[in-house]
Design brief:
Strand order of the largest sheet: 2-3-4-5-8-9
Largest sheet: 6 strands, parallel
Number of helices: 10
Oligomer: single chain
Strand content: 5-15%
Radius of gyration: 17 Å
Shape: globular
Distance between the termini: 52 Å
Length: 245
């Protein structure tokens, strides 16, 4: 398993250093994953909110870890491209178990955020960096850790300055990518330049396109739960039409 995991992670890591942004649609089940892979995307991500929704739970670690990792494994099995898993803050698992379950599911990487879902408060940056270092050490190069930085969504005084400071610590801890979620597009290049790591941007409806985000400094672009939400809205419209005949 280690050799295969190392190869997956290496292939996934290389995609962050191509000629344009790595666009990762966020899948939520095998059907969506196959559709995105068949469309030609070279890798996929999961979305914690999208996976939780289809499992019948709220986002914010409400979904049981067993169900989340089973969902990730089904997505991985359904496609032939690398898949990175959004696992929030790790569902309370110790680094060794968290990494083991990610590798068992076949993930090439993971998102780990630096605020607590239950309290919506930022974790102390030193504590977060130490935890990320443990995760990266356990992974041993077999996972690309995308360290999410929540300073823009958790009310920090100077979100850019704190994002840079946290990003530097997370880079030193072994993270392979940074995700300053909801950062203004003009901040992306600053975070990348100041930390030396690829930066993940969130693409939102009515915001800049993936190509535009790439031009502004994003090496990687994801969509969160918005793609699943669009499909869910379509199902609701279909249901209403069926009900009215």
């Amino acid at each position: 398993m280690t050799d295969g995991a190392a190869a997956r992670a290496a292939a996934f890591r290389a995609l962050h250093h191509g000629g344009g942004p790595l666009v990762l649609p966020n899948a939520w089940d095998a059907v969506s994953a196959r559709a995105f892979a068949d469309a030609g995307f070279p890798a996929l991500a999961t979305s914690s909110s999208a996976v939780a929704a289809v499992l019948g739970y709220a986002d914010g670690e409400d979904a049981p870890a067993d169900e989340v990792f089973a969902a990730v494994a089904r997505i991985v099995r359904s496609v032939d491209v690398p898949v990175t898993a959004d696992v929030e803050r790790g569902y309370g698992l110790a680094p060794k178990e968290l990494v083991g379950r990610l590798l068992e599911a076949g993930a090439a990487g993971c998102n780990l955020e630096d605020s607590v879902p239950a309290t919506r408060r930022l974790v102390d940056p030193d504590r977060q960096a130490e935890w990320l270092a443990e995760v990266c050490s356990e992974a041993g190069g077999n996972l690309l850790v995308n360290a999410r930085i929540d300073t823009y969504v958790r009310g920090a005084g100077d979100p850019l300055a704190e994002a840079v400071e946290r990003g530097r610590r997370y880079a030193a801890a072994g993270a392979g990518c940074l995700y300053p979620i909801s950062a203004p597009p003009e901040h992306l290049a600053v975070v990348a330049a100041e930390t030396g790591l690829p930066v993940n941007a969130l693409c939102v409806p009515d915001g800049p396109s993936p190509a535009a985000l790439g031009a502004l400094g994003a090496a990687r672009v994801t969509f969160g739960g918005t793609l699943q939400a669009r499909v869910a809205a379509g199902i609701a419209e279909l249901a209403a039409g069926l009900r009215t005949g």
